[in-house]
């Protein structure tokens, strides 16, 4: 089987040809076949993929790494096979191995990825390591991910990985990073990371106090996820008094009916009632919509 035929099989999803090509003499055919296993979710023999992971051609090994991670019927065994490739001489292979290990989420391999992060200089490989450590969720990875915050090229990856890790030990560094000033994308990722960690008060406080209206608009989205918890209620009520109309409109949209105590319910309805007289048409619109929902809820 040659690479041209196997490339056609990859394009058309010809499973028999792809599986047969895993043992082809042509390295291009083997590489296309491994890609086909991943792309078309084929049930390939694990022995065949393990053999390709040791292929003399690095492109074949790279494709095999992705196929092993994607089609692992035995994740434990597959992760052991992949971990053995962390010292592959080709950076591209090591990067795809780390990516696949993160997707398999076998936590015991986190320490090996920490070691890889420490010794690697390749920026793409270091970024893959950070993402994988977040996905693996090993608390022992926290110091490595916090150190990655100091690399401007990894800042976004590190923030998102800390959110995925979910360790409260990251809260202080994330809040400090936000306070020091970062660009809008990083700000949102910090807010999302704090949300994922469960730092409700810190998340809401950062959004509410930010000078940028676009960041304060995040408040409605984040508080809406936690509504009607008390910190979220307070945050949305404060947002109803924000000088920026889009912030007020977002808060009005999210103040819909929930089970609240009588006093809090009265505060919410009072804020919505005031909003019906807002100078901004969008704010009035969302207050009207939300008030109608409360009335429908009361009559249900």
Characterization of the model:
Helices cover 72% and strands 0% of the residues. It is mainly α. 42% of the residues are buried. It is elongated and about 75 Å long. It is built from 19 helices and no strands. It has a domain at 209-300: Leucine-rich Repeat Variant, CATH 1.25.10.
Please report which band the strand proportion falls in: under 5%, 5-15%, 15-25%, 25-35%, 35-45% or over 45%: under 5%
Low-pLDDT residue intervals, each spanning 5 or more residues: none
Largest sheet: none
Shape: elongated
CATH topology of the domain at 209-300, by name, is Leucine-rich Repeat Variant
The helix/strand order is HHHHHHHHHHHHHHHHHHH
Named at the architecture level, the CATH assignment of the domain at 209-300 is Alpha Horseshoe
Protein structure class: mainly alpha
**Full CATH superfamily name of the domain at 209-300:** Leucine-rich Repeat Variant
N-to-C terminal Cα separation, in Å? 68 Å
β-strand number: 0
Helix count from the secondary structure assignment: 19
CATH class of the domain at 209-300: Mainly Alpha
Fraction in helix: over 70%
**Alpha carbon gyration radius:** 26 Å
């Amino acid at each position: 089987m040659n690479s041209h035929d196997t490339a056609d099989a990859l394009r058309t999803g010809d499973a028999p040809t792809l599986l047969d090509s895993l043992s082809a003499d042509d390295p291009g055919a083997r590489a296309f076949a491994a890609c086909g296993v991943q792309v078309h979710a084929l049930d390939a023999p694990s022995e065949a993929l393990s053999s390709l992971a040791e292929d003399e051609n690095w492109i074949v090994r790279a494709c095999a790494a992705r196929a092993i991670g994607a089609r692992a019927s035995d994740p434990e065994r597959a992760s052991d096979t992949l971990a053995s490739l962390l010292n592959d001489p080709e950076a591209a292979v090591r990067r795809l191995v780390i990516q696949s290990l993160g997707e398999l989420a076998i936590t015991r391999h986190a320490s090996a990825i920490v070691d890889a992060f420490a010794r690697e200089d390749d920026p793409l490989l270091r970024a893959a390591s950070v993402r994988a450590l977040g996905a693996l969720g090993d608390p022992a990875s926290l110091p490595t991910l916090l150190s990655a915050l100091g690399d401007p090229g990894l800042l976004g990856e590190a923030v998102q990985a800390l959110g995925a890790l979910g360790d409260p030990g990251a809260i202080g560094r994330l809040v400090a990073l936000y306070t020091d000033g970062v660009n809008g994308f990083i700000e949102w990722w910090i807010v999302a990371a704090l949300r994922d960690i469960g730092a409700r008060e810190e998340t809401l406080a950062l959004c509410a106090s930010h000078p940028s209206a676009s960041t304060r608009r995040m408040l409605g989205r984040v508080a809406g996820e936690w509504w009607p918890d008390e910190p979220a209620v307070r945050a949305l009520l404060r947002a109803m008094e924000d000088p920026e109309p889009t912030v007020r409109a977002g808060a009005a949209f999210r103040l819909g009916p929930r089970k609240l105590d009588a006093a809090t319910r009265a505060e919410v309805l009072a804020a919505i009632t005031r909003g019906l007289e807002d100078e901004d048409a969008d704010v009035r619109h969302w207050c009207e919509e939300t008030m109608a929902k409360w009335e429908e809820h009361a009559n249900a």
